[in-house]
Amino acid sequence: MGLAVLSDIHGNLPALEAVIADARGRGADAFVNLGDSVSGPLWPKETASLLMREAWPTLAGNQERQLLCGGTERMGASDRFAYERLGDAQLAWLAALPATLSYTHDIFLCHGTPKSDTDYLLEEVGPEGAYPAPPPSVTRKLAGRPEKLVLCGHSHMPRVLWLGDGFIAANPGSVGLPAYSDPLPHWHAMETGSPRARYALVVDGMVDLIEVDYDFTAAAAKARAEGRRDWAFALSTGRVQ
Fold it and tell me: In principle, which of 57, 137, 176, 199 could form an S-S bond with 9, CB 3.0–4.6 Å?
C-alpha cells in the first residue's frame, strides 16, 4: 500500500517507465503527478499518451500553461518542441488539468506553491543562488492550508520538511530532468548531482524519497540528437554545464 508521487517528468519516457515499475514493485497502489509532464526535447507525445491511459490525478505545471498559451514564436525551445509534437487529444487533456488539487482531506497537491506555479515552495532564490527555505518561510507560502501533507514539484529538488504540529511539505524531485538553470529572479542552478530518476512514496503519512536507475544514456542521446546539448549533459550528470 502506498501513494507514489511523481513530478517534472518532462517527456522522459524511459525514466517514467522505470519509476512506475519501481513504485509498483514497492507496493504503490495509487499515483499522483504534480505537473511539467511533457515539455522538453524527448518524448512528449508518448509520455502524454501513457499518462492519459493511466488516468492518475495530474496537475498542470507552469510549462503546461506556457505551451498552451498559443503562438509558438513566444515559446521557449522545450515548450515549442513538445507543442509541435502533441496531437489534439493530448493538448485537450493538458488543457483540462487543474493547477492544484485537494487529493484527500489531509493531502494537498500543487506544482509550485498553492498560489503560484512558478514560485518554489521549499527553496528561496537570492543573488547568491538557490538555497533551502526555512520552515517559517514555507509555512507563510502555504497560507493556512489545512492539509497535514503538502506535495509540490517545480524545483526538481527532492526534500522533505517537517513544519511542526504534524505538518509536512515534500518535493519528490524530478522523474525526468535532474538538473537545470534559470535566470529568474536571479540566476540559479538546481542540481541533484546524479542522473537517476526521482519520486516519493507516501505510506501512512510518512514520505520516502526514492532514486531509480534507468537508461539515462538513451535520454541523453535523444536530447543530443534534437540539438539540446544542455539537456544531454544534465541528463547524463545531474549537473548544469
Answer: 176
Which sequence spans correspond to the domains of the chain? Answer: 3-100+172-237
Q: What is the CA angle 101-60-199, rounded to 5? A: 80
Q: What distance in Å separates the CA atoms of residue 163 and residue 148, rounded to the nearest whole number?
A: 9
DSSP string, 217-239: HHHHHHHHHTT-HHHHHHHHHSS
Q: Crossing angle, helix 77-85 and helix 44-54, to 10 degrees? A: 70
- Give the H or E element holding residue 180: strand 179-182
> Quick one: fold of 3-100+172-237?
Purple Acid Phosphatase; chain A, domain 2 (3.60.21)
Give pLDDT tens digits for 134-159: 999 999 999 889 999 999 999 999 99
Give the residue ranges of DSSP H helices in the chain: 13-25, 44-54, 62-67, 77-85, 88-95, 135-142, 216-225, 229-237
**pLDDT tens track for 157-211:** 999 999 988 899 999 999 999 999 999 999 999 999 999 999 999 999 899 999 9
